Amino acid sequence: MNNVLPEINLETINSYIEKNLDDFYIKSSEHPNFSSSKDEKISWVLAKNANWPDCIFRADFAYLNVKKEINNVKKLIQKGKAPNGWTVGPLTKPNDLGPLLEKYGFSNVYQQAGMAIELNDIEQIEMNKNDLIIKKVENEESLIQWSEVVSKVFGIKVDLGLLKYLLLQEESHFYLGKVKENPVSTLMLYLSSGVAGLHAVSTLPEYRSKGFGLAISRSALIDAFNMGYYVGVLQASSLGETVYRKLGFQKYCDFKSYALE
């Protein structure tokens, strides 16, 4: 039985949603194809041969000169020593860091909803039957197929070496959905900070609106529950938020991503 959360409450869930994401970034930064910085006031992971994951996160500028700290990071971005993507979540300090980033040359490029669900009744949630066959990724061939779908859907370059490394870690699990042997849908389940995080949920455009994303998410969350986890979390786009509410997810916080203009 893993470290679990018996219930969701607003006071604690925001931190678990963000910590699960941060844990994934930190684990990824341990691979030699990535460089990183991790200290008390700010962290980042910088990809050498890909563009995911590639992000500044976990900023804590409380009691510091915020303008000075932002300008220090800007210089590193301009020199290519830090990624040009800065995630601001519920644990970010100060609380108004987002508006301050915009004041000093950054743009808000996208926003996601931090969502969570209790997994006690996940098996009882009915799904529309479809042709999707969902299996856990267990070999390199399937992992390559997984990376190809993610790359096409999100328009990003994925580091296969990182995926091979993550596949060996007990906290990460990859899922691949196929229709007539064609890979069409993906998901990564990341178990950390006491919760089950859903990441890289994707479906090829020509196979959307068939419930594949919900089906593969439900399958992964059932596995997480059977491993002793009681809470699932994710970060969803505005469209994804509407979809995941059908599965029972509720929004608890916002994540905003900024890039230097």
Can you give a write-up of this model?
It is a single chain. By secondary structure, this protein is of the alpha+beta class. The protein has two domains: 10-112, no CATH class; 117-254, Gcn5-related N-acetyltransferase (GNAT) (Aminopeptidase). The protein has helices at 10-29, 66-78, 97-103, 140-154, 160-167, 212-226, 238-245, and strands at 34-38, 43-47, 55-57, 86-88, 106-118, 133-136, 172-179, 182-192, 195-203, 231-236, 250-260. The strands form two sheets. It has an eight-stranded mixed beta sheet with strand order 4-11-5-10-9-8-7-6, with helices on both faces. The protein has a three-stranded antiparallel beta sheet with strand order 1-2-3, covered by helices on one side. The longest helix has 20 residues, at 10-29. It is globular. The chain starts with 9 loop residues before the first helix and ends with a strand.
Detail the topology: elements first, then pairings.
Blueprint lengths: L9 H20 L4 E5 L4 E5 L7 E3 L8 H13 L7 E3 L8 H7 L2 E13 L14 E4 L3 H15 L5 H8 L4 E8 L2 E11 L2 E9 L8 H15 L4 E6 L1 H8 L4 E11 L1
Parallel strand pairs: 9-10
Antiparallel strand pairs: 1-2, 2-3, 4-11, 5-10, 5-11, 6-7, 7-8, 8-9
Keywords:
261 residues; alpha+beta; Aminopeptidase; 2 domains; 8-stranded mixed beta sheet; 3-stranded antiparallel beta sheet; 7 helices; globular; disordered N terminus
Low-pLDDT windows of residues: 1-6
Strand order of the largest sheet: 4-11-5-10-9-8-7-6
CATH third-level topology of the largest domain? Aminopeptidase
- What amount of the residues lies in strands? 25-35%
Query: Structural class per helix/strand content?
Result: alpha+beta
Basic shape: globular
Q: List how many beta strands DSSP finds.
A: 11
Q: Report the top-level CATH class of the largest domain.
A: Alpha Beta
User: From the alpha-carbon coordinates, what is the Rg to the nearest angstrom?
Assistant: 18 Å
Helices, by number, come to 7
Q: How many angstroms does the end-to-end distance come to?
A: 46 Å
Nearest-integer average pLDDT: 93
**What is the helix content?**
25-40%
**CATH-derived architecture of the largest domain:** 3-Layer(aba) Sandwich
Largest sheet, in brief, is: 8 strands, mixed
Number of domains: 2
